[in-house]
Amino acid sequence: MSEMSNSKFKNVTHCIFDMDGLLIDTELLYTTVINRILCPYGNEFTWANKATTMGFHTSELVRYLIETFKLPLQPQELTDQLIVGYADVFPSSKLLPGVETLLHHLCKHNIPIALATSSSADSFALKTKHLTKIFDLFHHKVLGGSDPDVKQGKPSPDIFLVAAKRFSDTPDPLKCLVFEDAPNGVQAGISAMVPDKNLPKKFTEQATLVINNLNEFKPENFGLPKYD
After folding, report:
1. Which of 214, 177, 176 has its CA nearest to residue 195?
2. In the prediction, which pLDDT does 4 show?
3. Full set of structural domains in the chain with CATH
């Protein structure tokens, strides 16, 4: 208990997890699909572009791509191309280091956990249909891309506020620890961040804690049960 009380972090009671790039390796897959579309036009989706758009809804991403790269495509045309590309690559998604261990640990100790992803229901199904045992561990899932209660995408805090409200005991949002990998997500729920190694350091400065992967997370620093 003394270690917990001496921690520079606040104690929490609930955990909310982003998905892409944090739990599964889909951020690289997104980039692959986008660059397949941009290549014929002589463009490239770089990490500067990615840092800006991580956490966007599909409609926001489509608008950004058309405007930024001056694509001669209508929004629905680009959306359809993205959907086809995603269907090709998302079923190959894999869990990232430390994910399975941490989620099982939190569940073992009855710490409520929720998922808060900008993905739509269809996109979520594509990415996780081979990983259902892990994603069934969550108390609930907020799929921002198709959830009517999520009015605005990240960096708006909507998705995390909705996720907090849907816990059965409706905790104070300040008692919820948010795990994120994206700058937009950190703005939406500043608590903990696990950024991609390629993300420029300036985009991680607002996070309470920055770690390389979930293997490095120490639950006891936030008043949660430590690993056995």
Report:
1. 214
2. 34
3. 2-25+93-219 (3.40.50.1000), 27-92 (1.10.150.240)
pLDDT at 69: 98
Active site residue 196: no
User: Given 3-state DSSP classes, what are the helix, strand and coil percentages for the chain, each rounded to the nearest 5?
Assistant: 45, 10, 45
Q: Where are the alpha helices (DSSP H) in 90-146?
A: 99-108, 121-128, 132-135
Neighbours of 69 (CB within 10 A): 18
Two structure tokens written together for 198: 């390629």
b/e for 96-122, b at 16 or more Cβ within 10 A?
A: bebbbebbebbeeeebbbbbbbbbbee
20 is catalytic: yes
Q: Could you list the mean pLDDT of each consecutive 10-residue stretch along the chain, which spans 228 residues?
A: 50 94 92 97 94 83 97 97 95 95 98 95 94 97 93 82 94 89 51 51 65 92 93
164 in Cβ contact with 16 (< 8 Å): yes
8 A C-beta contact, residue 217 and residue 22 = no
Helix ranges restricted to H, the chain? 2-5, 26-38, 47-53, 58-69, 75-89, 99-108, 121-128, 132-135, 158-165, 183-188
Residue 66, CB-side half-sphere exposure with 13 Å CA sphere: 16
| Tokens standing for residue 52 | 């800006």
